[in-house]
Predict the structure.
Amino acid sequence: MRKTRELYKGYFYHVFNRGVNKEIIFRGKDDFVLYFYKFKEALKKNPIGIHCYNIISNHFHHLSQQISEKPLSNFYQSFHTSFSLSLNKKYGRVGHIFQGRPQMKKIENTKYLLDLSFYINLNNILEELQHRNFGKISKGELDKLLIKAENYPWSSYGVYLGLREDGITNEKFILSILSDDIKKARREYRKLAREMLISKRFLKIRDLTFEEEGQT
């Protein structure tokens, strides 16, 4: 029998999971579109707070907040079941899409939220950087990677910078850590994102996140 997870109203959780056997989940744009359609439908039935997210071909990261007495796990169970059934039907497959239940790490210290938001929002380009020699990456290449992150449609990074809206993300809560002036906060967030990559601070966040589960 699975151990019941204790999830509490008001708390923030880093939620993440990957494809079963590390398989590709999202084979094309339509799969991402399906994911977000199912996600928004699930939010109507069992609302939770979404502060940032990043969906990559074989895994995802969310920074979520439980805003009612209903456990966060209820939302993800319902959402993943609905999405998995639809994706399996589309590709004529059976079985699990995700590798077990999502990992849900409670954020004990809210000071960690800002750093974690960078790790999640930039995760698609951090995947590339983890396997490269930082000493050989020019400022121009770094800027190109950041532009790539800004334009990536399956991450909330562009929402944080005010480049688009998605009807999902509550970016203003974390941005308020930087400034009550939303425009100033967005500028500062972009600046700090670059500094995080240069300083390699995201590597420390990754190690803290996956110290027990193994890296994703």
